[in-house]
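Lab meeting tomorrow. Please check the following:
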Amino acid sequence: MVKQPRSSKRQIEANRREKAERKRLRKIERVSEAGEPVDDPNGVAPMDHDAVIAALAALHQSYADGNVSLEDLEAGRLELTSRLHVD
C-alpha cells in the first residue's frame, strides 16, 4: 500500500478557502434564483458591528463546547466577518 503524502498547512488552508467560496457562490445562486434582492455584490447583507461580534462570540463558544468543528468555525468566521460594513 502506498501512503498518501500529507497535505501542507498552506494546501489545507487553500482548500478551506475554495470550499467557502463555492458555498458563497451557491448561496448567491439560490438567492438570485428565488428572485430575492441581493444587497451586496458578495451576496451577503451587511450586519451591525455588535451583532457580528455577538455571533462570533457564540460561534467560538460553540466550538469550545465541541458542538462545531474547526472547519465550520472557520467558514462561519469568514461569513460573519464578510458581513461587516466598513465605511
